[in-house]
């Protein structure tokens, strides 16, 4: 019986069509999201990190928060981060993704993520597994007397 490597289940998705509001390029031009993907791949290569699963995604519907990346995987929390700049944030994204894939459920505390991924979080969705962290019963309603 082999031990499953949790890094195998981690996926980094990058919206390659992201562009900031007022971006001057035409509709078919290469966009900043593609530059972010290139910068992350280059940083991974420079650091000797095998991304295992890197997906280029045509649109992640976060046009007001470009550039956007997501961390996901079976049985893991899914994170969506926006407001990223290709030249500035590739190393931060890669740093957080390396942390994410070391966690069996992908959970990362806010303070553990680089600052740009603390401010730029768009959402954190719990996994669809029984007993997932952060999934609890809501408090009972207070009855008026």
SSE topology sketch:
Blueprint: E1 11-15, H1 32-47, E2 54-57, E3 69-72, E4 78-81, H2 86-102, H3 115-119, E5 121-125
Parallel strand pairs: 1-2
Antiparallel strand pairs: 1-3, 3-4, 4-5
Please give a structural write-up.
With 145 residues, this protein is α+β, with helices and mostly antiparallel strands. It has one domain. The protein is built from three helices and five strands. It has helices at 32-47, 86-102, 115-119; strands spanning 11-15, 54-57, 69-72, 78-81, 121-125. The protein has a five-stranded mixed beta sheet. Helix 1 links the parallel strand 1 and strand 2 (54-57). The longest helix has 17 residues, at 86-102. The chain starts with 10 loop residues before the first strand and ends in a 20-residue tail after the last strand.
TL;DR of this structure?
This protein is of the alpha+beta class and 145 residues long. 26% of the residues lie in helices and 15% in strands. The protein starts with 10 loop residues before the first strand and ends in a 20-residue tail after the last strand.
């Amino acid at each position: 019986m082999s031990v499953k490597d949790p890094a195998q289940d981690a996926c980094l998705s990058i919206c390659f069509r992201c562009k900031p509001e007022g971006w001057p390029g035409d509709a078919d031009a290469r966009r900043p999201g593609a530059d972010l993907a290139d910068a992350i791949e280059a940083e991974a290569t420079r650091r000797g990190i095998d991304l295992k699963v890197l997906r280029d995604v045509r649109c992640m519907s976060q046009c007001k928060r470009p550039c956007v990346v997501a961390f996901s995987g079976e049985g893991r929390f899914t994170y969506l981060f926006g407001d990223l700049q290709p030249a500035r944030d590739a190393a931060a994204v890669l740093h957080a993704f390396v942390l994410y894939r070391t966690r069996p459920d992908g959970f990362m505390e806010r303070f553990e993520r680089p600052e740009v991924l603390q401010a730029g979080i768009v959402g954190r969705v719990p996994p669809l597994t029984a007993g997932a962290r952060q999934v609890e019963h809501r408090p009972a309603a207070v009855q008026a007397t």
